[in-house]
Known about the structure:
Elements: H1 2-16, H2 29-32, H3 44-75, H4 87-99, H5 106-120, H6 128-146, H7 153-174, H8 182-213, H9 227-231, H10 233-255, E1 262-266, E2 272-274, E3 284-291, E4 296-306, H11 307-314, E5 321-327, E6 332-336, H12 337-342, E7 347-351, E8 354-358, E9 371-378
Parallel strand pairs: 1-9
Antiparallel strand pairs: 1-2, 3-4, 4-7, 5-6, 5-9, 7-8
Helix pairs in contact: 3-4, 3-5, 4-5, 4-6, 4-7, 4-8, 5-6, 6-7, 6-10, 7-8
Amino acid sequence: MKEEHEDTSEHKKVSKYKPSLSKIPWVRSDLVHRKQDENYYYETSDLVIIALFSGLGGILSTFVGYLGNLVNSFLGVPFGGGQIISGLHVFWIVLIYLFTNRKIGTAFLAGIIKGFVEFFSGSAHGILVVLLSGSQGLIIEIVLIIFLSSNNKIIISLASGLSSVSNVLIQQLIFFNSQIPPLFIAFIGVISFGSGFVLGGILPIGFFHVFEKSSILNWRKTPAMSRQLKHIKLIRLSIIIFLVVSEISIFSFLIFQNRYSAQVTGEIFNPYTYYPADFLDRQVTVEAELIGDFTHILPRNYTGVPLEIIIKEAQPISEIYIAKISASDGYYVTFNSTEIQRDLSLILIIEPTGLRVVAGKFHGSYWINNVNRIEILDVANSE
């Protein structure tokens, strides 16, 4: 017994001098001893719900996209008819938002994850679907923050409707086609809003209430709003602002190529609107020097599309023609078909102020800016 007592004492003596991180002066004690009552903003169950339902929603949304194409075929329209069921894309984002106790940031996170799953499962939109889905989640976040409401059914449904409309607006801004009447775009926008309001708002809210009344969600606990979570409100709002700025930056980058356009008209078989984004694979880089009466720009590289390619796309009626290139202020210059066909360095480029002709072999006055019209005239009718 005496030996056992001595061993125990010796053990205590050793344990007494056991080093502790909290004894180190430069280590904060609150980082070593974590409080048991602290709550993480996202619980494990939240992350499981986001991952599970985002994956399920992404896979099903891929089939919803193809179902929308079937609706278009049935109605005999190239696009727009599928907006009747566009709210089903938002359904999963709203349902995830409700299941995770309406936490800020959940809708945007779910939209991004859902978009990537939809992309990898073969969406017809390709990588663009990540932008579309992420924008839908982000718009829901913004609307709920503006109205300072996360429980009002009408506000949630309104956010869902606006989120669904973003799908139409983004696609039209990136793949804008002047042949589509604005009234028709507005019409399918209204259809998309209604679909988002009902299928993306009211429907998931109804689903959630069915689960809430049952015992299925009893394991979900609404975390108490601790002082630490109250202080994090400003951080969350800052994150949302950062996400908005990032989304706008990405969106602006994608639509920059279609920011400006020029009508190609005249004596041609194929009148159309020239958009730089449609000719990205036919761009060339040339070195040119602007020499004018009052302006001189030293030689530098310019990247754009040759006028010969732009005009060839319009299919001129005659092989011998005059191209009248006009600016928005009415100023214009002309080139004949021989000059255009022989000089591939005669290109149309994008500048922050609009489309511009680069004509290195011509006087500086031919470097016309803010181009908005290219008219092809027969030589006999050009005067």
